[in-house]
Amino acid sequence: MKSLFADKFFYHIYPLGLCASPHQNDFCCPAGNAFERLEGELERLHAMGINALYIGPVFESSSHGYDTVDYYHVDRRLGNNESFKHFCACCHQQGIAVVLDAVFNHTGRDFFAFRDLQQNGQNSQYKGWYLNLDFSRRSNFGDCFDYEGWAGHKQLVKLDVDNEAVREHLFGAVDFWMQEFGIDGLRLDAADVLSKSFLDALSAHCKAKKLDFWLMGEVVHGDYNDWVREGRLDSVTNYQLYKALWSSLNDKNFFELSYNLDREFGANGMYDYSPLYNFLDNHDVNRIASTVKKAEHLYLLYALMFCIPGIPSVYYGSEWGIRGKRTDFGDRELRPALPPFVQSFSDDIRPSVDSAALVSLITRFSDLRKNHPSLQTGTYKLVNVTNQTLAFTRSGNGETLMVCFNCDDKAHDVSLTCADNSKGFEDILDGTKFPAGTKTVSVNANWMRILR
Fold it and tell me: Terminus-to-terminus CA distance in the chain, angstroms?
């Protein structure tokens, strides 16, 4: 498979949260100015090395964005089609690709086809649009029929995406987004429960219009080979690696991470042919700053993410180290309003690390990855692993880099006996040189070396 977007570094925005939008849409308020204000952030993101934006649901919805009401109009709480079109143009001027959250598995209850079902029942022309309609019983909302909701959530009504009329409506929306906003790709919500025939048809439809259009699926469990393949998707969310990244540091057990990296990207790795979408947090899981046990490990984790195979991403605000955990009442704590939409951080999310230092590190490692293609598409090979240390190589484009990590509170020697040390090494981070025949290198506490 062609390695589309292997050179990208993503910034993930959940706009309804970031922009302090009302939690409920009243469907009559004037268009907001979120996109105009977000345009002011693009220069900062570009300076950090961001060259791709994954922006969460932006189309008209009832509440959180994943309960779509209209695929053809931007949510009025954020703005309108014209303001979003201008925002996308500004992104492209900064060299930032735009990937939209495409919610095709389900709609909200305010969607026009569902409203027609409520009004006309079995006589509705849209009764084939939704799965498992049952007119012999009422829904828990009192509708004259029952239906399937995504994962049991009845506010999210599951579409029959293999219905031709549904496909025509959804593919028409994609055409509109491509033509009107010039988008560069889609993140497919709940891709792991969308039919494979739908994904294949969507891929064929998009690639016929733009060969390098990128399709990434939200997949939590399963064999990613079922989704990432020629004629289907280009990438998926790498949940299989997500937990190993932070728990290997929390538990001082690099064997966990080493096992997962080798399983995915080693010589016989399952997914060594395509860049997967790597993340430390997102709008559905706890902020990484609330997940790591040691603040020092936050810096190490971001450095690590830029050195392993895959496409790195940062969830909005996490570049500053803000905190946030899911609660029994929902995900709002993970999706807070931030400056410039509020004056300052609230106490419950305020960073407990040096935000400027974290941004500086992310910027530095983004630049390293940009200037060393081996960190983008190079092969992965384990060199050495202990509980506290991990060393591996990334090789490609005529270059081999050896990356050594230490997650302990004291310096450790890392063995290089499995590496080619006939010409010696230089640490591209601090310029330290190691002569030919070097068998070990010392790595400072909670830090790393990148040897060339």
Answer: 28
Beta bridge pairs of residue 277? 237, 311
Q: Cα separation of 19 and 351, whole Å?
A: 19
Q: Residues with Cβ < 8 Å from 71, sequence gap 6 or more? A: 59, 169, 170, 173, 176
Q: How far is CA 226 from CA 221, 229, 431, in A?
A: 11, 7, 44
Extract the tokens encoding 320. Answer: 């500053």
pTM for this model (two decimals): 0.97
Euclidean distance between CA atoms 449 and 412, whole angstroms: 12
What digits encode the pLDDT tens for the residues 105-136?
A: 999 999 999 999 999 999 999 999 999 999 99
Q: What is the mean pLDDT of residues 1-9?
A: 88
Contacts of 212 (CB under 8 A, 6+ apart): 4, 184
From the CB of residue 414, how many other CB atoms can be counted at a distance below 10 Å? 23
State the Cα–Cα distance between residues 316 and 288, nearest whole angstrom.
Answer: 12
By residue count, the chain amounts to 452
Contacts of 427 (CB under 8 A, 6+ apart): 433, 434, 441, 449, 450, 451, 452
Residue 3's pLDDT band, with cuts at 50, 70 and 90, is confident
| Spatial distance between the Cα atoms of 75 and 57, rounded to a whole number of angstroms | 9
- Give the rounded distance of the alpha carbon of 325 from its chain centre: 18
Choose among 62, 48, 125, 64: nearest CA to 356: 48
Q: How far is CA 44 from CA 11, 39, 51, 424, in A?
A: 11, 10, 12, 38
Confidence check: pLDDT of 275 > 70: yes
Of 368, 388, 361, 362, whose CA–CA distance to 451 is shortest?
368
Identify residue 46 by its one-letter amino acid code: H
Q: What are the start-end ranges of the H helices in 140-188?
A: 164-181
Pairwise CA distance, residues 404 & 385, whole Å: 9
Asked whether residue 419 carries a pLDDT value surpassing 70, the answer given is no
Asked whether residue 2 carries a pLDDT value surpassing 70, the answer given is: no
Return contacts of 79-82, CB within 8 angstroms, 24+ apart: 79/31, 79/32, 79/33, 79/34, 79/35, 79/36, 80/31, 81/180
345: helix, coil or strand? Answer: coil
Sign of CA dihedral 40, 45, 50, 54: negative
Give the pLDDT score at 355: 97
